[in-house]
Amino acid sequence: MLQHIQEFGSNVIKTFDELVAGIDPRIKDYPLMQSPVPMTGILLCYLFFIMYLGPRIMAKRSPFQLKEAMIIYNFLLVALSIFIVYEFLMSGWVTTYTWRCDAIDTSNSPQALRMVRVAWLFWFSKIIELMDTIFFVLRKKHSQITFLHIFHHSFMPWTWWWGVGYAPGGMGSFHAMVNCSVHVIMYFYYGLSAAGPRFQKYLWWKKYMTAIQLIQFVLVSLHATQYYFMESCNYQFPIIIHLVWIYGTLFFILFSNFWVQAYVKGKRLPKQDIKSHQNGSAVYTNALVGGGQGAHYAFTLWHEAEGTRSAEWNLPPPSST
C-alpha cells in the first residue's frame, strides 16, 4: 500500500514538473510565472478571506464606505484596460493577424515579445480584480457575492495562468482583447456609480450594459466557432479555443435569459432572502432569475424601483472572459 502511495506521489510530481517545464520560456521571468503554486496560494487566500475570515472580521463592524478608494480603483482599471487593448492591437491584431487562424508567434521578435508582455498583463489584471469581491466583503454587500461571482473570479485567473503560460498570443488572445474592451466601459460605469447620486443622470445607459455583454459573448463565440470549420489551422493549443467557445456560449445563455426576463417580459429581479450566520460567516446565494441560475450575477442593479436608491457598484465583471 505504501509503495502504491509513493508511486502515485512520484507520478504526480513528475506530471507537475512536466507541465511547468512546458511553460513558454519567454514568460517564465515574469512575476508569478515560475510555478502555479504562488498563484494558487493567492487564490486560496482570496477564497478563505471572502468566505470565512472577512465576514467574521466584519460581523460586528459597520460597513466601510470606501467611496474614494472605489472611485480610484475603478478608474485605474479603466486606464489599465485601455492600455491592454491598445497593446493587443499593436502586438498583432491590427498589424499581422488575419482575425481567423492566427498561430502563436514563438519567436523573440519585438512584436512577439510585446504580445507576451500584454498577455501576462491581462492575466495579472485578473489578480487585481479580486479586489471586486474584497470591496463587497468590507462593505458587507454579501448578497452580491454569489456562487457564480466567486467561481468566475477564482477560476478565470487560475485557467488564464496556464493560458498565458502556454499560449501567449495567437487567435486565443482575441477573447482577452474583447474582454478588456468591455471592461473599459464597465469599470467606467462602476466609477461613476461609486461617485454618488449626483452622477445618476449620467448613468441612463446602464441597461445597455447587458447588451454590451451579449455582444461580447457573441463575438468571442463566433471567432472561436470558425476554428471548427477550417480545413486546417496551425494554432498550437486547440484546447484554449474549446474553452473559450464553451465560456462564450454559456454566458450568452445566462445573459440572454436575464435580458428576456428583465426587458422582454418586464419581470423584476426577486429580492434575496439573505441571512447572516451568527458566527459572522457570509451566506452566498445561487440567485435564480426566471429559472436561470446565475443570472443575478449578470445584473442585480434593477431589482429595486427606479429612484429608490443610488446606483450601487454591485456588478462584478462577468468576463473576465
Automatic annotation (TrEMBL):
It is an enzyme of class 2 (transferase). Its EC number is 2.3.1.199. GO terms for cellular component: endoplasmic reticulum membrane. Its main location: endoplasmic reticulum. InterPro entries: ELO_fam (IPR002076), ELOVL1 (IPR033681). The chain crosses the membrane at residues 39-59, 71-89, 118-138, 145-164, 176-196, 208-229, 235-260. Pfam families: ELO. Pathway: Lipid metabolism; fatty acid biosynthesis. GO terms for biological process: fatty acid elongation, monounsaturated fatty acid; fatty acid elongation, polyunsaturated fatty acid; fatty acid elongation, saturated fatty acid; long-chain fatty-acyl-CoA biosynthetic process; sphingolipid biosynthetic process; unsaturated fatty acid biosynthetic process; very long-chain fatty acid biosynthetic process. One of its GO terms (molecular function) is fatty acid elongase activity. It is a multi-pass membrane protein. It comes from the Eukaryota. Belongs to the ELO family. ELOVL1 subfamily. This is Elongation of very long chain fatty acids protein 1. The gene is elovl1b.
